[in-house]
Amino acid sequence: MFGGGTLFRSFLDAGLVDSVELAVMPVLLGGGVPLLPHPAQQTNLVLTGHRVYKTGVVSLEYAVKKPRRGGRGKSSPA
Fold it and tell me: Is residue 75 part of a domain?
């Protein structure tokens, strides 16, 4: 899915996002557009890949680490 922050956040809040791919452009700005509109919930991401292009653009790939729901973890034998 490609879309803006509002669309992305609605899918993220619904638990429907498995991965996120971001591109970092080598441009200095005095301001910019946030990825997620406020208030943004904290989301744990795990870096799964990256690529650096000759232009200086860096592509980052993250997996969304979903929180465990309910139940107790497996207990280890004593």
Answer: no
Residue 12 located in a structural domain: yes
- Tens digits of residue pLDDT in 15-63: 898 998 988 888 877 777 777 777 667 788 899 999 999 999 999 999 9
DSSP state of 73: P
- Answer yes or no: is 71 within a domain: no
pTM over 0.90: no
Instruction: State the total domains in the chain.
Output: 1
Q: Are 36 and 4 in contact (CB under 8 A)?
A: no
Q: What is the full DSSP assignment across 7-48? A: HHHHHHHTT---EEEEEE-----S----SSPSSPPP-EEEEE
With respect to residue 78, please indicate whether it lies within any of the assigned structural domains.
no
Tokens in use for 33? Answer: 């557009």
3-state secondary structure of 4: coil
